[in-house]
Each structure stands twice: as structure tokens, then as C-alpha cells.
Amino acid sequence: MKTELPKPGKPASNLSARVISEQISTLIDRLSKKGQCIVIWEKERLLFCSMDSRNAQRYLAKPTCLGVYDADVTYWDVQKDLKEILQRG
């Protein structure tokens, strides 16, 4: 099952630090409740799906895949991975 974080209204290159911070915090909250998931950056927002989803392989193959995270991930881990994705794009 795919879950989306709120969509910001600005282009990816102009996203505010606050909007990105809110998305990362929402992701970490979701991980603490649901466990492991795959995270990708897609059109200005973080998307995630569970490892047992039928979309899991498709998400893992995307060049914007941040990785597979579990409840142990920190805000800074996600922020670092997202920064790498944004610098590539």
C-alpha cells in the first residue's frame, strides 16, 4: 500500500527547509508505528510503501529511491539521503 506525505506547492528546488523537515518527521513517525518501508522522492514529496507491497521492486529500481528504512532511522539519515537525491536531480 502506497502512502503519500502531504504535497507541498513549490517546485523541488524551491522547497523550504520547513516543508522538507515536516515530510521527514511524518516519515519517521510512520516508521515508528508501521515498521520497515521503501522511500522514494517523487515530484516534491516523499512516498513510501511497505516491503511486501506489489510495488516494492518498482520503488527499489527508481533512481530517486532513498532506500529501505526501519524504525531505527534518524531524521539526519533521511535528510542526508534526500540531499543526495536532490543534488543529482
Which terms would index this structure?
single chain, 89 residues, alpha+beta, 22% strand, globular, disordered N terminus
Mean pLDDT: 84
Helix share, percent: 40-55%
Rg (C-alpha, Å): 12 Å
N-to-C SSE string, H for helix and E for strand: EHEEHEH
Number of strands: 4
The largest pleated sheet is described as: 4 strands, antiparallel
Distance between the termini: 26 Å
- Which strand order spans the largest sheet, edge to edge or round the barrel? 1-3-2-4
Work out the count of structural domains. 1
Report what the structure shows:
Mean pLDDT is 84; it is low at 1-13. This protein is α+β, with helices and mostly antiparallel strands and 89 residues long. A four-stranded antiparallel sheet has the order 1-3-2-4. The chain has one domain (2-88). A hairpin with a 2-residue loop joins strand 2 and strand 3 (45-50). It has three helices and four strands; from the N terminus they run βαββαβα. The termini are far apart. The longest helix has 18 residues, at 17-34.
Give a quick rundown of the structure.
With 89 residues, this protein is α+β, with helices and mostly antiparallel strands. The protein is 43% helix and 22% strand.
Strand and helix layout:
Blueprint: E1 2-4, H1 17-34, E2 37-42, E3 45-50, H2 56-61, E4 65-69, H3 75-88
Antiparallel strand pairs: 1-3, 2-3, 2-4
